[in-house]
């Protein structure tokens, strides 16, 4: 029977504006200006769908992808990713047989099993892909290599499913987070002056009313 070994990876992009850990982000559509796509022009849609379907895997095979992450939104975003092993079927545990290297602009971020739990445990903790100011772009290089020692099976199929979750979290600037100290003082003084003006006007009205009552 023909040998078939297959790895299917799907990527889901999750966008959120919140304070706290990435793991608790709520799923929404990807911001229209947060663009992620590979060297073949395949982009992540607003629904977050992106798949890597690697079929007919053999020992020592390699697969490379380059994901360009570009922020055209007017706001800064922090991007990160997690790994979520879903299912493995057949005689081989493919997620243990494939080595994954992730490089961001040439700097290695992850180097271990494709399931995502070696060194930086992407299953438990989000892998930081950096901050992206408006107009900023970075390249995430994905390299996968099958172990040269992978055993050959000819009578059964082996498949593995893995989901990558990309998170785009809006970075709130100090201007958006609240008024600065100088602004607090400035607007505080305005408030005091307004209160004094209102109090003076009330006092004038009261005095005029008293004069009218006395003259009457």
Descriptive overview:
Mean pLDDT is 74; it is low at 16-27 and 178-213. The protein is elongated. The chain has three helices and ten strands. It is of the alpha+beta class and 216 residues long. It has two domains: 4-175, no CATH class; 179-215.
Which features characterize this protein?
five-stranded mixed β-sheet; 2 domains; 216 residues; alpha+beta; 3 helices; 42% strand; elongated
Concise description?
This protein is of the alpha+beta class.
Number of strands: 10
Biggest beta sheet summary = 5 strands, mixed
Strand order of the largest sheet: 3-1-10-5-8
Uncertain segments are: 16-27, 178-213
Q: How are the SSEs placed, and which strands pair?
A:
Layout lengths: L3 E13 L17 E4 L12 E6 L6 E10 L5 E13 L4 H4 E7 L2 E7 L13 E6 L4 E10 L10 E14 L3 H4 L3 H35 L1
